[in-house]
Amino acid sequence: SLVSASLVSAGLDSASLVSLFTFGLSASLVLGFLSFGLLLSFLGISLHLWSFSLFGVSFLGLSWFRFGFLGISLHLWS
Asked: Which residue range forms the structural domain that includes residue 29?
């Protein structure tokens, strides 16, 4: 019974470690996308104001990420 209890506790510890790792990875990905969108919005600020008024506040990160490449290519092209 001691061996099975130690196995259950070890399984719970590894599962909590995996969940902590995935949570940290997803949080770092979200923060990276947001900072990337902020950087691109400084490069293409007129396009981002247009996408902000088009998509609204809830899709602000998605519009940053979606129109960031358009903004940076337009500014490099012009």
From this structure: 2-77
